[in-house]
Automatic annotation (TrEMBL):
One of its GO terms (cellular component) is ribonucleoprotein complex. Belongs to the mitochondrion-specific ribosomal protein mL45 family. It comes from Rozella allomycis (strain CSF55). Residues 89-230 form the Tim44-like domain. Keywords: Mitochondrion, Ribonucleoprotein, Ribosomal protein, Transit peptide. This is Large ribosomal subunit protein mL45. Gene3D superfamilies: 3.10.450.240. It is found in: Mitochondrion.
Length: 238
């Protein structure tokens, strides 16, 4: 089984990150469509490596080391949940899963429809640079691609919760949260093929698809929203 590779940052050993890619005062004055032009990716490596370790690469290290890393991840998640509940009124993970599932559906539809405006509203700028080329290609095609969610195999599960702090430009403490969810679903893609009398040609993978999605939000900015910051995908039967 193979995961698509991410280009990730150097591993972060604590929940602190240095002052690079900080939020400017001007960013605070904008509303949802233009918030946070300079995002940091505080826990990206921790998130991805944590999932790889617990999932298919666990056998590469000793049982003692595995136990230590899993314990560290559990403690980090508890801390992350505590901070999220403190900083965001009414936050709970079950409600977040519903919001995240809607974002997941919107992401797939927008990519296949080549809808760059929607993608820019729901994705971080970094992730937009990874997917906009494909979305533009779909937008230019004469035959459009249709994505359908047949069913979710089960409720999205939490892979990791990370909250990291960093020093703002005025010496204040900023907080960024990343929640990683795993989605298992049956999907179908359909493309209309032919010029004179186009016919639908569906492609439906036999096995469910597993998507691991990273969602990100700045907690000190009242106008920020959850956005998609990264994605890994594989067929469960691979």
């Amino acid at each position: 089984m193979k995961l698509f590779r991410f280009n990730v940052l150097k591993q972060i050993s604590t929940l602190k990150v240095r002052n690079y890619g900080v939020i400017s005062d001007a960013d605070y004055k904008h509303k949802q469509s233009s918030v946070i032009r300079n995002r940091i990716y505080a826990g990206e490596l921790d998130i991805i490596m944590g999932q790889r370790f617990i999932d298919e690469y666990a056998s590469e290290t000793s049982a003692v080391k595995r136990a230590g890393l899993i314990t560290k991840q559990a403690a980090r998640r508890l801390y992350g949940e505590f901070v999220l509940k403190k900083e965001l009124d009414g936050f709970n993970l079950n409600s977040f899963k519903i919001e995240a599932e809607n974002l997941y559906k919107t992401l797939n539809l927008a990519i296949t429809e080549g809808d760059l405006i929607t993608l820019s509203n729901i994705c971080t700028m970094k992730y937009m640079t990874e997917i906009k080329k494909y979305a533009r290609q779909e937008n230019k095609r004469r035959t459009k691609l249709k994505w359908e969610l047949i069913k979710m195999e089960k409720t999205p599960s939490i892979v990791d919760v990370i909250v990291a702090s960093f020093e703002g430009i005025k010496g204040n403490t900023e907080l960024v949260a990343q929640i990683t969810l795993m989605f298992n679903s049956k999907q179908r893609l359909t493309r209309m093929v032919g010029d004179a009398n186009p016919v639908p040609v569906p492609f439906e993978p036999k096995d469910p698809i597993r998507d691991i999605i990273v969602f990100e939000r700045y907690l000190k900015n009242p106008f920020d929203i959850w956005k998609i910051a990264g994605r890994m995908q594989k067929y469960i039967g691979e």
